């Protein structure tokens, strides 16, 4: 796979959950390679020292507590509850039993907390750093990420509704993104909107 890229491991026996989380993580941190494992044994067989972070189901963390405690700074526990009393002490946790927008926001907050302004991460490839959107498209993108609908965007920017729709279509084509969640991730990761405004 992508040589030289930092790697993230998702360790969870729930295949469907790992597929979805992998796609979100690749959107949030496009410079990362994300590998998935259905068991702790698979992770160990593939060299856990090669991974920047582990996203691990709570059950697997409990079953292999000593290993994950030793690597707690790299471990993010995947939980089914937002209730702090049910989350594991000493670990970062993220609830995966929430709507997509909320999960995206949690992942972005986690990334911004640990790696704000790219701290502790390698530089983005030049292709990902390039500015591909016009200033007006960036304004439209920022408002989409903040949850505005087309009519509100048109009113906010004093432009026509069809112009907003055209900008939105152009943004999605230029970025190759098809969902509001993906646009939101892109907007936050490129500093076009503050995470606290989404």
Helix/strand layout:
Blueprint: E1 7-11, H1 15-28, E2 33-37, H2 40-45, E3 53-57, H3 58-63, H4 65-70, E4 75-79, E5 92-95, H5 100-115, H6 126-129, H7 135-145, H8 150-157, H9 161-175, H10 180-189
Parallel strand pairs: 1-2, 1-3, 3-4, 4-5
Helix pairs in contact: 5-10, 7-9, 7-10, 8-9
Give a description of the structure.
- This protein is an alpha/beta fold.
- It has helices spanning 15-28, 40-45, 58-63, 65-70, 100-115, 126-129, 135-145, 150-157, 161-175, 180-189, and strands at 7-11, 33-37, 53-57, 75-79, 92-95.
- It has a 5-stranded parallel sheet.
- The longest helix has 16 residues, at 100-115.
- The chain starts with 6 loop residues before the first strand and ends in a 9-residue tail after the last helix.
Calculate Rg over CA atoms.
Answer: 18 Å
Let me know the number of strands. Answer: 5
- The helix tally amounts to 10
Largest beta-sheet characterization? 5 strands, parallel
Which structural class do you get from the secondary structure elements?
Answer: alpha/beta
Beta fraction of the residues? Answer: 5-15%
Distance between the termini: 33 Å
Widest beta sheet: strand line-up: 2-1-3-4-5
The helical percent reads 40-55%
Order of helices and strands: EHEHEHHEEHHHHHH
Mean pLDDT over all positions: 85
Poorly predicted segments: none
Question: Any idea what the shape is?
Answer: elongated
């Amino acid at each position: 796979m992508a040589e030289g890229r930092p790697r993230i491991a998702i360790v969870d026996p729930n295949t469907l959950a790992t597929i979805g989380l992998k796609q979100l993580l690749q959107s949030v941190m496009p410079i990362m390679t994300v590998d998935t494992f259905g068991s702790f044994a698979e992770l160990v067989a593939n060299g856990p020292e090669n991974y920047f972070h582990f996203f691990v189901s709570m059950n697997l963390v409990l079953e292999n507590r000593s290993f994950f405690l030793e690597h707690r700074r790299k471990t993010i526990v995947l939980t089914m509850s937002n209730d702090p009393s049910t989350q594991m002490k000493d670990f970062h946790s993220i609830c995966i039993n929430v709507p997509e927008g909320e999960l995206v926001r949690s992942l972005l907050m986690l990334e911004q907390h640990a790696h704000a302004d790219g701290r502790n991460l390698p530089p983005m490839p030049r292709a990902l750093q390039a500015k591909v959107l016009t200033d007006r498209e960036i304004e439209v993108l920022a408002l989409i990420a903040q949850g505005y609908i087309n009519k509100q965007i048109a009113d906010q920017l004093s432009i026509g509704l069809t112009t907003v729709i055209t900008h939105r279509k152009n943004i999605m084509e230029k970025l190759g993104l098809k969902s509001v969640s993906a646009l939101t991730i892109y907007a936050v990761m490129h500093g076009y909107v503050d995470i606290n405004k989404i």
